[in-house]
Amino acid sequence: MKELSNLAMTLKGSIIREMHSAAAGMTDILNFTVGEPDFVTPKPIIDRAYQSMLEGKTFYSQNRGILPLREAISAYHKKVDGDKIAVDPNDNILVTIGATEALQLALFATINPGDEVVVLTPCWPNYLGMVTVAGGVAVCVPGYEENGFAPNPADIEAAITPKTKAIMVNSPSNPTGAVIPQDTMDQIAALIEKHDLFALVDEVYRTIVFDGQRAASLTDYPAIKDNIIFINSFSKMFAMTGWRVGYVTAVPQLIAKMTLLHQNFANSIFVPAQEACITALEECIPDSEKMTESYEKRRNLIIKGLNDIKGLSCITPGGAFYAFTNISEFGMNSRDFCLKVLEETKAVTVPGVGFGQSTDGLNLDNYIRVSYATSEDNINEFLNRMNDFSQKFFG
Ligand SMILES: Cc1ncc(COP(=O)(O)O)c(C=O)c1O
């Protein structure tokens, strides 16, 4: 066999998979790794997909996605965001295989080999892989725990060079649950305008925000409207991770190019899944809101519980369903810590080291990610086991 490509040989796998492998074969596992809702997709959505299949809608669709779904996305955003997001169904929207494909296409459409992309860390590990796949160079800008993991705009500006083409912004964030505060977002928007950057705005958790807040969004700034590549998904909002439907909105020229890329990568999305997403937007917002209420209750439960355990601490996340927990008092690196926790408590968590690159001020090895998209019973059991673990450790 000839040699595989450099890309194939250098891409790294997700640390989450590594933890799953470590847990394989164990019984009575408590899984706190998964970055997805534990709810089953609301029934009207499932019914619509079933109906669509019975109607024989089993063919390829338009590359951009079926028009009725693009219209439903457009109507939804007009209702929620007014005219902040450009959502002409014919010009501004492309339906993709989740936010994952949308992000990758956005990078392919904007990055040349060697171009730099500012990535705010801690970040979803795929960001680094995606930039690499697109031939770009990820320049990590850390957010620190004392700032609620929000980035410092001065650090972002310092990271911008003539090669910087884009910035990836994810708020609420995976893995920290951090919601970037309004004044920080103001400054990030100003930097995007000043340096004329593409802004990949990943808001897959935009509806999972707590304490009656609304997350600040880069879509709030008319001056950078044309710079924005807005990425959203049905995955987290409607508990539809396995359906693989997301979308991207941007200026027509970008959408046209991303559609060509999508034609080559994926062609189109399963039509019954697309039709089901129309039902999601038109009928299932109340289901989505109930899920968010439940995540908020779980957040309150787990954050208090974690902070009551000796050696653990966690700031209160404003959204998503992750607790990025400080484990530094245990004096272990995050991988060893997670493996020891797994061995002794059968709870699976994710080492912080997988969520970006550590820098002077942000040692990712001081953290683990705990995904609390799971039942309150599981959370209570996890907290009990972690408490026992801590007591044994500190004696
Ligand atoms: C920040 C972030 N963006 C995008 C995605 C991918 O979402 P999708 O299922 O729509 O591809 C995830 C999934 O975990 C995520 O955490």
| CATH-defined topology of the largest domain | Aspartate Aminotransferase, domain 2
SSE order, one letter for each helix or strand: HHEHHEHEHEHEHEEEHHHEHEEEH
- Helix proportion of residues, in percent? 40-55%
- According to CATH, the homologous superfamily of the largest domain is Type I PLP-dependent aspartate aminotransferase-like (Major domain)
Q: Let me know the average pLDDT.
A: 96
CATH architecture of the largest domain: 3-Layer(aba) Sandwich
Overall body shape: globular
User: How many strands?
Assistant: 12
Ligands: pyridoxal-5'-phosphate
Protein model, in words:
The protein folds into two domains: 6-41 and 286-394, Aspartate Aminotransferase, domain 1; 43-283, 3-Layer(aba) Sandwich (Aspartate Aminotransferase, domain 2), CATH 3.40.640.10. The longest helix is centred in the C-terminal third of the chain and has 23 residues, at 285-307. Helix 8 links the parallel strand 5 and strand 6 (198-202). It has helices spanning 6-10, 15-23, 43-54, 67-81, 98-110, 126-133, 153-159, 182-195, 252-265, 271-283, 285-307, 334-345, 376-394, and strands at residues 30-31, 93-96, 116-121, 137-142, 164-170, 198-202, 228-233, 246-249, 322-326, 347-348, 350-351, 367-371. The mean pLDDT is 96. It has 395 residues and is an alpha/beta fold. Helix 3 packs antiparallel against helix 10 (271-283) and helix 11 packs parallel to helix 13 (376-394). The strands form three sheets. A seven-stranded mixed sheet has the order 2-8-7-6-5-3-4, sandwiched between helices. Strands 9-12-11 form a three-stranded antiparallel sheet. A two-stranded parallel ribbon has the order 1-10. Bound molecules: pyridoxal-5'-phosphate. Pyridoxal-5'-phosphate binds at residues 35, 98-100, 124, 170, 174, 202, 204, 233, 235, 241, 246.
